[in-house]
Amino acid sequence: MRAGELDRKIVIETPTEGQDDYNGRTLTWATFATVWAKVSPVRGRESVAADRALAQADTMFRVYWLSGVTTKMRVSYDGQYYDIQHIAEIGRREGLDLLTRLQPA
Q: What is the DSSP string of the chain?
Protein backbone atom coordinates (compact mmCIF):
# COMPACT_ATOMS: atom_id res chain seq x y z
CA MET A 1 0.00 0.00 0.00
CA ARG A 2 1.38 3.38 -0.97
CA ALA A 3 0.82 6.34 1.31
CA GLY A 4 0.23 8.70 -1.63
CA GLU A 5 -2.89 6.76 -2.63
CA LEU A 6 -4.53 7.47 0.72
CA ASP A 7 -5.58 11.00 -0.12
CA ARG A 8 -9.09 11.35 1.36
CA LYS A 9 -9.91 11.88 5.02
CA ILE A 10 -12.77 9.72 6.32
CA VAL A 11 -14.37 9.24 9.71
CA ILE A 12 -15.26 5.76 10.95
CA GLU A 13 -18.17 6.00 13.38
CA THR A 14 -19.47 3.51 15.93
CA PRO A 15 -23.08 3.31 17.15
CA THR A 16 -23.83 4.24 20.75
CA GLU A 17 -27.08 4.10 22.68
CA GLY A 18 -28.33 6.94 24.78
CA GLN A 19 -31.52 8.04 26.45
CA ASP A 20 -33.78 10.85 25.39
CA ASP A 21 -35.74 13.15 27.72
CA TYR A 22 -38.49 10.53 28.05
CA ASN A 23 -36.13 7.66 29.00
CA GLY A 24 -36.43 6.19 25.51
CA ARG A 25 -33.44 4.73 23.73
CA THR A 26 -31.78 6.75 21.02
CA LEU A 27 -29.09 5.72 18.59
CA THR A 28 -26.24 8.16 18.15
CA TRP A 29 -22.90 7.88 16.40
CA ALA A 30 -19.50 8.51 17.97
CA THR A 31 -16.17 8.93 16.18
CA PHE A 32 -14.13 5.72 16.32
CA ALA A 33 -11.25 6.97 14.15
CA THR A 34 -10.40 9.66 11.63
CA VAL A 35 -8.07 8.20 8.98
CA TRP A 36 -6.71 8.72 5.48
CA ALA A 37 -8.20 6.46 2.82
CA LYS A 38 -8.19 5.61 -0.86
CA VAL A 39 -11.77 5.87 -2.15
CA SER A 40 -12.84 3.66 -5.07
CA PRO A 41 -16.38 3.39 -6.43
CA VAL A 42 -17.19 -0.30 -6.92
CA ARG A 43 -20.60 -0.30 -8.56
CA GLY A 44 -23.93 1.44 -8.58
CA ARG A 45 -27.41 0.50 -9.69
CA GLU A 46 -30.88 1.94 -9.79
CA SER A 47 -34.24 0.21 -9.61
CA VAL A 48 -37.86 1.17 -9.27
CA ALA A 49 -40.09 -0.32 -6.58
CA ALA A 50 -43.56 0.92 -5.63
CA ASP A 51 -43.12 3.87 -8.01
CA ARG A 52 -39.99 5.00 -6.17
CA ALA A 53 -36.53 5.12 -7.66
CA LEU A 54 -34.04 3.30 -5.48
CA ALA A 55 -30.30 3.79 -5.88
CA GLN A 56 -27.49 1.73 -4.43
CA ALA A 57 -23.86 2.75 -4.58
CA ASP A 58 -21.06 0.54 -3.31
CA THR A 59 -17.73 2.14 -2.45
CA MET A 60 -14.42 0.65 -1.27
CA PHE A 61 -12.41 2.56 1.33
CA ARG A 62 -8.80 1.35 1.72
CA VAL A 63 -7.14 2.36 5.00
CA TYR A 64 -4.08 1.41 7.02
CA TRP A 65 -4.62 -1.40 9.52
CA LEU A 66 -6.95 -0.42 12.33
CA SER A 67 -7.96 -2.83 15.07
CA GLY A 68 -11.58 -3.02 16.22
CA VAL A 69 -13.43 -2.05 13.03
CA THR A 70 -16.71 -4.01 12.63
CA THR A 71 -19.60 -4.19 10.19
CA LYS A 72 -21.82 -2.44 12.76
CA MET A 73 -19.90 0.77 12.08
CA ARG A 74 -20.27 3.28 9.27
CA VAL A 75 -18.04 5.60 7.27
CA SER A 76 -18.66 9.33 7.00
CA TYR A 77 -17.17 10.83 3.84
CA ASP A 78 -17.93 13.96 1.84
CA GLY A 79 -21.14 14.67 3.75
CA GLN A 80 -22.59 11.19 3.23
CA TYR A 81 -22.78 8.02 5.30
CA TYR A 82 -21.81 4.54 4.16
CA ASP A 83 -22.74 1.32 5.99
CA ILE A 84 -19.82 -1.12 6.24
CA GLN A 85 -20.87 -4.35 4.50
CA HIS A 86 -17.60 -6.31 4.52
CA ILE A 87 -14.07 -5.92 5.90
CA ALA A 88 -11.06 -7.56 4.20
CA GLU A 89 -7.56 -7.60 5.67
CA ILE A 90 -4.75 -6.58 3.31
CA GLY A 91 -1.56 -8.56 3.84
CA ARG A 92 -0.62 -9.21 7.44
CA ARG A 93 -2.26 -6.30 9.19
CA GLU A 94 -1.01 -3.91 6.55
CA GLY A 95 -4.40 -2.42 5.83
CA LEU A 96 -8.15 -2.91 5.49
CA ASP A 97 -10.55 -2.76 2.57
CA LEU A 98 -13.95 -1.57 3.75
CA LEU A 99 -16.71 -2.45 1.28
CA THR A 100 -19.56 -0.05 2.00
CA ARG A 101 -23.02 0.85 0.76
CA LEU A 102 -24.29 4.42 0.61
CA GLN A 103 -27.12 5.01 3.07
CA PRO A 104 -30.33 6.24 1.44
CA ALA A 105 -30.98 9.95 1.89
A: --GGG--EEEEEEEEEEEE-TTS-EEEEEEEEEEEEEEEEEEEEEEEEETTEEEEEEEEEEEEE--TT--TT-EEEETTEEEEEEEEEEETTTTEEEEEEEEPP-
